[in-house]
Design goal:
Length: 331
């Protein structure tokens, strides 16, 4: 067994270890237009926060997040731990945004796994000093359940923020990277560990790694947090892929997995099961001197407070579903 505090850095999948989220990284920039998509509105996700409103048009709460405008202010997209104390306090006051330390995520994920497996200490043992000791032996499964059942078991993190329960690239309360991969404690991290332990060929590994992502869901209100969560899942895929196959995934595969992440990690007002703040504003576009569009008219058209129900995707049935109808079936 290896103690969490004794872990040595293997790699973190990012060139700049001081920047936890860097949307100007070539990899992220190339996929940013997909990462900003909202599958429910067929537009872009919106800010759903007034944190950046002082930057003007394109940064109001109901504005769609425009790729080009965002890249001009790339440094505003950062995890909560790297925001100013004043901004942290304001977001806590307005949206109840808080840190969730990795040890607490681990504790709660362990409780979920204890219920699923019918026993304690499946992936690690919690220590009294808020660390954990990884159990290095391959995970054993109970009767009537297999590793494939575990990978396919659906997990949802509500109001997910940066998705610390799903993936644990870094400790959200300290900003410290969690390395090597065997030390990570997110629900998706656990699924990918199981995939690593039970597959031999590239094709089989890829099939079940993708299924692990397909079974992992989360929703978030604020657009900047949602983007960070999506990037964290994407970088997690890259980390595990590189660790297993000692090469980078190609562009086609990255676009494929990014599309699945965008479906599964979506923007929603969790109290109403709809896109926050009604229909989004028309996406910002640079105007020429000869553009005769009535901007005020276009904006007022989209200001009507018509709710857009959120849709998620059932990958096993191959179709999208309205989330609130899904709740009616199972709750």
């Amino acid at each position: 067994m290896r103690d969490h505090n004794d872990a040595k850095t293997k790699f973190d999948g990012y060139e700049n270890k001081d920047i936890l989220i860097d949307i100007k990284n070539d990899l992220i920039t190339s996929l940013l237009q997909i990462l900003l998509k909202d599958k429910s509105t067929k537009r872009n996700i919106i800010w759903a926060t007034d944190t950046y409103s002082e930057l003007g048009i394109g940064f109001k709460d109901k504005d769609q997040i425009n790729r080009d405008l965002l890249l001009n202010h790339a440094d505003i997209i950062k995890p909560r731990i790297q925001k100013s104390l004043e901004t942290q306090a304001a977001r806590t006051r307005k949206k109840a945004e808080v840190f969730t330390p990795a040890w607490l995520c681990n504790l709660m994920n362990n409780r979920c796994d204890q219920e699923w497996f019918g026993r304690k200490d499946v992936f690690n043992i919690e220590n009294e000093n808020h660390t954990w000791t990884v159990i290095e032996e391959p995970v054993k499964f109970p009767k009537q359940k297999t590793w494939k059942h575990y990978v396919d078991s659906r997990r949802l993190e509500i109001t997910c923020g940066e998705a610390p329960y799903l993936v644990s690239r870094y400790d959200a309360s300290t900003g410290k990277m969690i390395v090597p991969l065997t030390q990570r404690i997110g629900q998706l991290d656990r699924k990918l560990r199981v995939v690593n332990e039970n597959t031999d060929t590239y094709g089989e590994w890829l099939k079940w790694a993708i299924r692990a992502f397909e079974a992992t869901y989360g929703y978030e209100y604020q657009g900047d947090n949602l983007l960070i969560a999506r990037i964290n899942l994407l970088l997690t895929f890259i980390d595990y892929y590189k660790d297993r196959w000692e090469k980078k995934p190609d562009e086609k595969l990255l676009r494929h997995i990014t599309n699945k992440i965008v479906w599964n990690i979506w923007q929603m007002d969790g109290l109403k099961d709809v896109v926050p703040l009604g229909k989004p504003y028309e996406e910002y576009k640079q105007l020429s001197l000869f553009d005769t569009d009535d901007i005020a008219g276009k904006r007022s058209e989209w200001e009507e407070n018509k709710s857009v129900p959120c849709r998620i995707y059932d990958w096993r049935k191959g179709r999208s579903i309205i989330f609130m109808k899904l709740k009616e079936i199972y709750l």
